[in-house]
Amino acid sequence: MLQGHFILLFFVLINSCVYCQLYQGYAEEESIHGNQRSSPKGYFGKSWRRQVLDGDSEVPIVTNNTVSPTSLTGTSSADLEHAGKRDGKFFSLFTVVKFANDDCATAANENGTCYSAAECSARGGVSSGACAGGFGVCCTFSYTCGQTTYQNSSYFSNLNYPSSYDGTGSCQLTVNKVSSNVCQLRLDFFVMVLVQPETNDSNCNRDQFIVTGGSRVPAICGTNNGQHMYVETGLLGNSPITLTVVTSGTGFARQWRIKVTQMNCDSIGRAPNGCLQYYTGVSGTIRSFNYDGTSGRQLSNQDYSICIRTESNFCSIAYSVCTGGVYSITGPTGGSATAQGTPIGALVGSTTCNTDWLTIPCASDNGRAIQRGNTVCQDRLCGDAFASVVQATSGTVITSVRPFQVTVHFDAFEAIVPTSVTNVQGQFNNRGFCLSYIQQPCTS
Ligand SMILES: [Ca+2]
After folding, report:
1. Any signal peptide, and if so, which residues (predicted)?
2. What 8-state DSSP symbol labels residue 293?
3. I want to staple 161 with a disulfide (CB 3.0 to 4.6 A). Which of 84, 157, 245, 280 is the partner?
């Protein structure tokens, strides 16, 4: 009896020891940023080594025959490897669960990456919720001022987020590519509340969000919750991209939380070149930065393109002012600092639209190059009503030019223009635009 207990205790100690070393060995051996670490000595001094590649995680568990392959959500039975098959009889009580480092949703409904708990901790992440059938944790990587990220997916927040920040400073996140195959960053502004532009020319002269090191990105300010941007990182070299939030002055509660996703060159979610914003789906809504139908002002110094993926079997696209929204690119005339002037309606063409305008290639009011009234389609639209023809009210604008794209040009000025001045559109109290789009089926 005593002998039986001794034998049992002996096996428990051995297996505990193996468990520790297997688990510790796993953490030690994992590939971090591509730098493989040396292998430790295993049980009884025997050297053993397993290689865990980026993109997969492994978790050793005590099986006791209670873990069934079918209990793992999204994990095939082939992913369960009995270590004993490789490493001898002492490992026979352990199973290694292997799972991919896929995207996952955290308890706070943010996007994370599925890692083992040890891996998440070793990489400096925060675990929130379970994934991989409970064998992994949904891991997020949050950064704030002065830090550097090497992660596929990161969050960049103000100091002490979710508390706000009120002060003068320059808060930077350095984003290093995780591999040479990264071509773009996608920035999702979950929260982005900065000081509004100044009231004369709507320039961002106090606060700015700036991107450097990649493709040209317009500086923005004000409120941009829910907006996004794509930044080209360039194929050559691994120079980092820097995200900077400049804040100037006190008396305003800034807050930001930006998701930074690295996009591989061959990713299906990658935006076409030259697209600052990229939308998919048959229908959707596009808005100018700092859009707010009642109080937000159109930002000056904006030059960028919004692209919409052409969905299968759709050949044209129709735009209209979104329900309850506004469209105010230029105008009105004759206003003052305290009173709105006379609305100018929809204006078209490069002669008239020469300060701020949208470019929608061959925009028409009937989906054909020749519009109603026998005028040709227009590329350049402005005014304070949205239409492809000169009229007082907004209408539907259709184009069949693909790829579907809306290019924004807002100059550096917003000024009150007297009604006596012709051929210069008023630029005062403009709100920018909110447009709904719906793709139109091919008809031939
Ligand atoms: Ca302007």
Report:
1. 1-20
2. T
3. 157
Report d(CA 194, CA 210) in Å as an integer. Answer: 12
Question: Which CATH code fits 141-270?
Answer: 2.60.120.290
182: left (phi over 0), alpha (psi -120 to 50) or beta: beta
Residue 182 has a pLDDT of: 94
Alpha carbon of 321 to ligand 1 centroid (Å)? 20
- H or E element at residue 7: helix 2-29
Residue 230: Cβ within 10 Å count: 25
Q: In this structure, which CATH number among 2.60.120.290, 3.40.50.1220, 1.10.260.30, 3.40.50.300 belongs to the domain 272-444?
A: 2.60.120.290
Angstrom distance (rounded) from CA 137 to CA 139:
6
Cα(350) to centroid(ligand 1), Å = 15
pTM: 0.78
How far apart CA 354 and CA 273 sit, in angstroms, is: 26
Task: Spell out the domain ranges in the chain.
Answer: 24-140, 141-270, 272-444
Residues with CB under 5 A from ligand 1 (ion): 356, 411, 414, 427
The residue count of the chain comes to 444
Tokens of 134: 């409970």
For 216-269, what is each residue's pLDDT tens digit?
A: 999 999 999 999 999 999 766 678 999 999 999 999 999 999 999 999 999 999
Rounded distance from Cα 380 to ligand 1 centre (Å): 15
How far apart are alpha carbons 412 and 164 in whole angstroms? Answer: 30
- 202 Cα: distance to centroid of ligand 1 (angstroms): 8
Read off the pLDDT of each residue in 97-115 and give the average, rounded to a whole number. 89
CA–CA dist 258, 406 (Å, integer): 24
